[in-house]
Amino acid sequence: MLTELRTKIESEQEQKNYQEKFQEEAREYEQFSRTNFFMKVFGGRMPVQDIYEEAAKLSLKINAPCYNLLMFSLQDKREGANSGYESEDFARKREEILHYFMRYPEYLVFRWNINTYGVLLQGSTEQMKELTARCLENIARICQPTEEIFNWYVAVGESVERLSLLAECYSKLNHFFAYRFLMPETHIFTKEIADTYMPREEGGKIGDIDSSKVDQELIKDFLLKGNHDEIAEFVDSYLLSIQEALKSRLFQNYLVFHIHFVTMAYVEAIGCDKKEFLALLGEEQIQEANLSIEELSPYIQNILEKAMELRDRVSDSQSKKVLKKALDYIEENYTQETLSLNTVASAVNVSSNYFSAIFSQAMQVTFIEYVTQKRMEKAKKLLRQTEKHSGDIALEVGYKDPHYFSFVFKKTQGCTPREYRAGVKA
Question: Which of 235, 195, 205 is nearest to 218 (CA)?
């Protein structure tokens, strides 16, 4: 009887270990699902009941009297960083920040894009100020010692008391976050900080304007690092900061030509033809600078939008080359137990973080889902077409432990390998 009890306990522990291993491998999928979930929430496309239901499916606890949002980005200033290379010290710094948020249930962290992460803060109205301050203090504590080699920025929205208002909270957060391009020496952005960038009422002369606000680097940096959904916020904030000077027709004309030429120089610098850029704008030559103040914002937004379209084409082309190499490498090696996201990223000479992001975006499944799917398809073929033992098939498709292979097979296919061979499931 003791032997049976011990065997039962060992079996239960083994199943628990397999479950933990499977969950660890599925963590990348969880992050991918979280990102898609929050994109829908912030887009205002989900009724509150759907938010609760979707959150429950993802095992996310979203039920608090008060919410706020925070975004932070970390980028390596050093050479090679923009080509997918990632240094060990940079990766450690990012993981240190993420680990801090994962320690507390009040914070739900999610990836937004390659270099940007979001955090949903949850608590009582009284707690929110303290929760926000803790976030900002710890990000600053981790990042400030490395400002010479890393760019870091964090923005926080304004708290709301209903889930249905998260889209509004995100809109304000996105507005504050866009100020990182206008105030590159500032690292933390709140409503109060953003308000300090606004002009004083007095003035109105061109000579009164801060020359740093029309620095070409502001536009170039935004084109390099900004996102399409930040364009409107960036342009409106940019124009608002120089609104007094815009009363001068001379300055308006200067600004239009300035942005045109800076953007064209950027487009050529990334290897695109300026004629293609002008064709995208729908004009053969630079438009005469005779715009009204009301027409300036949409006009400039269009210029930046078209430049970003070209930037994304170049980036997509590079990403597709990386992805093709990666898929070829996976095809040749998916039956090797040692295959991992890190080994594939190393094989195609990019960081694992960059590779994970472009893979999920292009394939609409995570790396581990893709590899598991390929292994399961081969396993099913071998189970139906050969008499090989299940343990041998496990080895052949990349699983050293036959029991773990059976666990994954049942988890993903809904039946055991033996049941599948017997025709329980087609």
Answer: 235
Q: What is the number of structural domains in the chain? A: 3
Contact by Cβ (8 Å): 41, 120? no
Say whether both 253 and 383 belong to one domain.
Answer: no
Helix H or strand E encompassing 80: none
**Residue 384, Cα to own-chain centre: how many angstroms?**
41
Task: Please calculate the CA angle 65-68-74 and round it to the nearest 5 degrees.
Answer: 150
Residue 372's pLDDT band, with cuts at 50, 70 and 90, is very high
β pairing state of 116-123 and 107-111: antiparallel
Identify the bridge partners of residue 188 per DSSP, sorted by sequence position.
Answer: 154
According to DSSP, the residues that pair with 260 across neighbouring strands are none
Q: State yes or no: pLDDT of 394 exceeds 90.
A: yes
- Which residue in this structure is represented by tokens 């083994």? 14
Alpha carbon 349 to chain centroid, angstroms:
20
Nearest partner of 14 among 413, 412, 320, 403, judged by Cα? 403
CA-based nearest residue to 176, from 143, 132, 114: 132
Q: Say if residue 184 is in the same domain as residue 212.
A: no
Residue 77, both tokens = 């200033």
DSSP state of 423: T
Query: Helix, strand, or coil here: 366?
Result: coil
CA distance 293 to 249: 9
Contact 255, 212 (CB under 8 A): no
CA atoms within 13 A on the CB side of 58: 23
Cβ atoms of 267 and 274 closer than 8 Å:
yes
Residue 168 shares a structural domain with residue 282: no
In the three-class reduction of DSSP (H, G, I as helix; E, B as strand; rest coil), residue 64 is classed as coil
pLDDT digits (tens, 9 = 90+) for 66-106: 999 999 998 887 655 555 666 778 888 888 999 999 899 99
pLDDT at res. 253: 82
Distances (CA, A) of 56 to 38, 61, 152, 162, 399: 13, 7, 33, 17, 31
On whether residue 127 sits in a domain, the answer given is yes
Q: Domain for residue 426, yes or no?
A: no
Per-residue b/e over 57-89, b at no fewer than 16 CB within 10 Å?
Answer: eeebebebebbbbbbbbbbbeeeebeebebeee
Give 189's pLDDT tier (boundaries 50, 70, 90): very high
pLDDT, one tens digit per residue, over 282-295 is: 754 455 557 778 88
User: 10 Å Cβ neighbour count for 10?
Assistant: 10
